[in-house]
Every structure is written in C-alpha cells, then in structure tokens.
Amino acid sequence: MTGTTEISRRHLRADARRTFRLALSAAALGMVLSGPAFAGVGPWFTATGGEIRLIMAGGVPDGEGTYKAALEIRTEPGWKTYWRFPGDSGIGTSADFSASDNVASTALAFPAPERHEDPYSTTIGYEGGAVLPITAKMKSTGDPATLVADVNLGLCREVCVPVTTRLEIPLDPDAPADAVSAQAIAAAEARVPEPVDAGDPLSVTVLSLEPGDEPAFRFTAHLSDADAPADLFVEGPQGSYLSVPTLAERDGAKAIFTLPTEGLVHDTNSAVLRLTLVNGSHAADQSWTVDLSALE
C-alpha cells in the first residue's frame, strides 16, 4: 500500500486496538516535544516501538553546496520499520523537506530493504532500524540553513504504529565534522541500490507478461553472486498496490520471480515498473516499461 497515513488493520488483534490508540496519542504528543536540533545530530523523537532523528556528517558542504545528512531510525527488539513501499501492508516511509530554510533541493535515499514474512502478509523494510541518506543542496552557501523533515513512517510488531513528526537540524559550515555520523551515512550509502547500466552483472534481463485468469509478471534476473541470496521488489505507478514477488526458480546466477498483476494501476496499455534487485551485499535499481495490451 502506498501513501503516508494509510495502515492495514485487517490483521490487528482486537485486544491490541487500545494500544494502537495510545500509540497515536504518543505520536501526536511527540510532534510538540521534538524541538530544535543540535550540531551533528538532532534530538531523538521517541514513539512506541522506536525512535528517529536527523544526523549530518558536518563540516563544510561540497563544491556544489551540498551537505550529507540522514534520517536515522532505531527500533526496539522485535520491531521493524518499512521501506518506501511497504509490501502487502503497512506504511511506506517518506519525508517532506519543503519547510527547510535556505535549501534548494533534497533527495532521500533508501538502502536495500529486507523481506519480512508472517502468517498474514509479506512486508518490506528494516528490522532493528535504518539510516536513510539525505543530500541537501543549499540555495546560498553564505547564509544559515536548516534542514526540516516532516516524516511519516510506521513502526510494527504485533501492532503497527503510525508516526508523524517534524525533525530539524542546522546545516552549519562552521560546525565540526562528525566522524560517527559520517561513517553511518557512508555505510548506508553503500547499501543504496545502484542504477542499472547496459551490461551490468546484476539486473533483470527479461520481463514478460503471462495473461490468463490470473495474469502475472515474470522477471528473469541475472545475479552477480551465484551463491548469495537474491530477492526482488517491484513498485508500480502512483496508486498501485502490488504484492511482493515470489522466487519461482533459482539456478546459480539465474533467478526467476513471478508477481500477480492484481493491484497495478494504469491508464494506458503500458506501465513503468521500478525494480529493486538484491543479491547478497549488492543491489540494483532499474525501471522497465511493460506492455499491458495482453490484459485488455
């Protein structure tokens, strides 16, 4: 499911609904309690199941006036948070930086996620937390700046807690470099899927559509590590609610995944799918325009 405030409740236990309402109250209170940030790291915003803050590498920006920062999420044992697309249920993680001061542009990146399965659904996210890299480009490098993030995400165990809060941190060229934050950001950047170029050893090489009573996509992937685990995550156009692909076949460096077309939103006979292929410690980001005329 996409969107920042939607949450799947079909598997919430009746005896957990009171906890869910209390968590909502706690999240709302946190919006008031999260105050201004300090140099290097912002204050933790605490919610049921975890905490979040902004961090920055510090020091002067690069030659284009760009700072490196990140959204740091920590979850309590047994809790998880979601990727930008949550899978069968949950809340995708997002951040709006439009309230930032003296910031021309921002980009939020997502390290390769993990598949989580329970008896009811398959979701996509991070157990234990995550560091999501942010690049923030200044409007004027000579003036003060503040990075402001209006964050929406979910923290989940037996109960899914929606979290909405505003976080901020100053972008100060006179602030000292923060080696700990810089290392955490660099490690997260290394896990962000890389765009696929022609000839890359890790990519989806064939995408076909199998029509019928239950039409499905079939993805053939070439892997860079024949011995490492492989997984595939697929995002459709705006408003789509796709499931999570299933590994149908695996033969060394070749893997085939299938995915029902149910939940795909499209206005024409084609649609652009965004594919994230994970193979061990490597991950690839790929877009594919698929012909849907066989569905008509």
Verbal overview:
The chain is mainly beta and 296 residues long. The protein folds into 2 domains: 176 residues, Immunoglobulin-like, CATH 2.60.40; 102 residues, Immunoglobulins (Immunoglobulin-like, Sandwich), CATH 2.60.40. The protein is built from 2 helices and 19 strands. The strands form 4 sheets. Strands 4, 5, 7, 8, 10 and 11 form a 6-stranded antiparallel sheet that branches. Strands 1-2-3-9-6 form a 5-stranded antiparallel sheet. Strands 12-19-18-15 form a 4-stranded mixed sheet, with no helix packed on it. It starts with 16 loop residues before the first helix and ends in a 5-residue tail after the last strand.
Provide key terms for this protein.
mainly beta, six-stranded antiparallel beta sheet, 296 residues, disordered N terminus, Immunoglobulin-like, 9% helix, 2 helices
Estimated radius of gyration: 20 Å
* CATH topology title of the largest domain: Immunoglobulin-like
The main β sheet shows up as:
6 strands, antiparallel
The overall strand count is 19
Shape: globular
What's the SSE blueprint?
Blueprint: H1 17-33, E1 45-47, E2 50-56, E3 66-75, E4 80-87, E5 94-96, E6 103-108, E7 114-117, E8 122-127, E9 129-138, E10 145-156, E11 160-171, H2 179-189, E12 194-195, E13 203-210, E14 216-222, E15 230-235, E16 246-251, E17 254-260, E18 270-279, E19 282-291
Parallel strand pairs: 12-19
Antiparallel strand pairs: 1-2, 2-3, 3-9, 4-8, 4-10, 5-10, 6-9, 7-8, 10-11, 13-14, 14-17, 15-18, 16-17, 18-19
